[in-house]
Fold this protein.
Amino acid sequence: MTVSVFLPCRKGSERVPKKNIKPFAGIENGLVELKLKQLLSCNAIDEIVLSTNDEEILAFANSITNNKLRVHKRIDALCTSTTSTDDLVAHALDLIPAGHILWTHVTSPFINAQVYQEIIAQYFKALEQGYDSLMTTTLIHGFLWNEQAPINYDRSKEKWPRTQTIAPVHEINSGVFLNSAENYQNLDDRIGNKPFLFPMNKITAHDIDWHEDFVIAEAIAKNGLASL
């Protein structure tokens, strides 16, 4: 029942320079410092494997004395903007060949130790219920269309239903993917064939991708609107 975290953290963010280690909300080493603190504080996690090619992140991570943390210097060929997720799936399995793999990112600052604890507990409960993996989502309550028609409501029954009555759609927010190493091996994927969808509120699910996301996250953190 070992749960190991795969934490990919490459150098060279194009949208937010030094995004992973620049100061964030008064935290000197930013998102990577915050995320490692959150993960190391979660009792349900047995190991954190930080995979990075960023010299600053390597130096900071190697300064931490904790047996739960394993720092891996990733080769640059697996750290380009064109590196595929499939390549990283294989990389994660190479680093964590057994047990359960929790894939997460430093860019989800509000998924804290308590939330990870809840997710892991739900994952093992879901396995008993016939699911084979878990991924976090954000529920979208709204009018969603493709190029031709609505995809989540029927205009022949009601042209403009109340949004509260529309079946929500799950948007994958990339906060957590939790799966067994065995499924990684057999399916070449970070989820299985029947993932449990774990919905989060919008603040907890907030992902930092663009500069605006970073600014919003700092404002949330500094105003105490979410627990770090």
Summary: The two ends are 27 Å apart (CA to CA). The first helix runs from residue 30 to 40. Strands lie at 3-8, 47-52, 69-73, 100-104, 133-140, 169-180, 195-200.
